[in-house]
Amino acid sequence: MAGLTSSTIGRKYAMALSALFLLIFLILHLTTNLLSVLNKDAFNTASDFMGYNPFVQFLMQPILGFAVIFHFIMGFVLEIKNNKARPVKYAANNAAVNSSWMSRNMIISGAVILAFLALHLYDFWLHEINYKYVEGLTPDAERFWPELHEKFADLWRVALYVISFVLLGLHLAHGFQSSFQSIGARHPKYTPVIKAFGKWYSILIPAGFIIVAVFHFITQ
């Protein structure tokens, strides 16, 4: 790992790999959350499995946590090093023409998403830790849907989630394609497909999460 992150190319490659892992996780996470809109019992069953399965809790969850932390740290490190290595600022190079606003401000959207993750962890992960390990309450497979539903009773919280998901979509719009480029997946035949898939991914994934939040708000 030290060798992989010792150079700029290595850091970009490592960051891309963590991004691809997180892209897969977002699909799985959204799939589970959409069950709360489609079928309450199915959501409770899936959440109970995810919440008490040892493989998920003690292997995949720590890996996910590491991937999130690693991805954001690498992002901040690369941004700092790029700024130091750039003698001429973007403004002097007509950045509005040469690159998109999001590509130039990934660090900003990343910081906002990181703040959102802190709220999300407070809302759900800390609650689970308290329920299972602090209070040691009896497992209840029927509790997950009501707990999720209750979280979106307040308009301010729903608004924060919606804004965060919109920023996530903007972040993904650039990050999806960038991740594949960083690992060398560039080809005249496949790059247009990756771009198109990335575009739809950056729209549909955040939109799905927004639907979940809004659904639970309007059905209070």
Automatic annotation (TrEMBL):
Question: Which keywords describe this protein according to UniProt?
Answer: Membrane, Transmembrane, Transmembrane helix
Q: Name one GO cellular component term.
A: membrane
Entry's transmembrane regions:
12-38, 58-80, 101-122, 155-176, 197-218
The UniProt entry, under SUPFAM superfamilies, shows: Fumarate reductase respiratory complex transmembrane subunits
In terms of InterPro entries, this protein maps to:
Cytochrome_b-558, SQR/QFR_C/D
Any keyword Nuclease? no
Record-linked NCBIfam families: sdhC_b558_fam (TIGR02046)
Name recorded for this polypeptide = Succinate dehydrogenase / fumarate reductase cytochrome b subunit
Q: Which organism is it from?
A: Chryseobacterium rhizoplanae
